[in-house]
Each structure stands twice: as structure tokens, then as C-alpha cells.
Amino acid sequence: MKSNKQKRAQLEAKRARKAQRARYAAIFRGDSNCAALKGWRWSKKGDFVPCDASQLAHTGFYGSPPQFVLMGYQDQLIRCIGCGTEETWTAMQQKWWYEVMKGSIYSRAVRCRACRRQRRTIRAAANECRLAGIERKRQAKRLAPSSQRRKLKRS
Ligand SMILES: [Zn+2]
């Protein structure tokens, strides 16, 4: 039997996790006006957003840590290497990339959102094709008579 206190603590933890997920979803969409972010310590546009270094995926810095670790994130203007469009890589998107997606702290955005999405789709399709190929090969090996199996192995 759980005590009321334990139950309350569990409920609170659950609520906190849900709120965290909603915040991350809003950050991912780049929606700074989302209700999930209201009241949360969140800076205005152009301000620095503090970096939570404990959430970064790194095993040590080479020399000094990147500036955002010490100063926080700030909106950055990037020029897409794919299409040449200039786009803002917002502080929130940076926080998402480094702290939630665990991107390398030495990586940064080089493509606009549209190009990133397009690349992701193409790569997913290519991967599906690759996996289907592997599966076909496996099936062929299983079905082939022993003489053909030898040939398959050699090739
Ligand atoms: Zn682009």
C-alpha cells in the first residue's frame, strides 16, 4: 500500500514529465508562444537562453567549452549550404539540438529547416531500400539450392 504522500509525489513527477514533453514539443516546433512555455523561465527573442550543461552529450571538452555552454544560447543567423537561404537558428532550437537530441556540442546547423526535412526524408527512404535489399538477399540465400548458395557466398 502506498501512502498518500507517495501517491502525491508520483503524480507530481508524472505531471512534471508531461509538462517537460509539452515544452520540448513546442521547442521542436519553434513555437515560442505555446502555452506550454508560459511561465517557464524562458528568455525573450534575441536574449540568451541558459544552457543546462548536465544535459549535453559530451565526454569532455577539447580545450575550452563552446561559448554557448558558458553564455547560453542565442539566435544565430545561418546560411543554408543546400539552398543558400538565410535562416535564424533560434536559441530554443539550439537548446533542443544539444540537450534533447544530444547533438555533438561541436556541431551546428548548416542547413535550413526545409532542407533538413528534405534530407531526412531522402535518407529514410534510402535506408528502407537498403534494408529491403538485405532482406531480399537473406531470402535468396535461404531458398537457393546448395550449389547456388556457394556462388552467392563467393560473390
Ligand atoms: Zn536550405
Strand content: 5-15%
- Spatial order of the strands forming the largest sheet: 1-2
Number of helices: 5
Query: What is the residue-mean pLDDT, rounded to a whole number?
Result: 82
Find the count of extended strands (DSSP E, 2+ residues): 2
Radius of gyration: 23 Å
Unreliable spans: none
Q: Judging from the principal axes of the Cα atoms, what is the shape?
A: extended
- The string of secondary-structure elements, in order, is HHEEHHH
Bound molecules: zinc ion
Tell me the helix content. 40-55%
Largest beta-sheet characterization: 2 strands, antiparallel
Name the structural class. Answer: mainly alpha
Number of discrete domains? 2
Euclidean distance between termini CA atoms:
64 Å
Task: Give a structural overview.
- The protein has about 160 residues and is mostly helical.
- Helix content is about 50%, strand content about 5%.
- It has helices spanning about 5-30, 65-70, 90-100, 115-145, 145-155, and strands at about 75-80, 85-90.
- A hairpin with a 6-residue loop joins strand 1 (about 75-80) and strand 2 (about 85-90).
- The N and C termini lie far apart (about 65 Å).
- Bound molecules: zinc ion.
- Zinc ion binds near residues 80, 82, 83, 114 and 115.
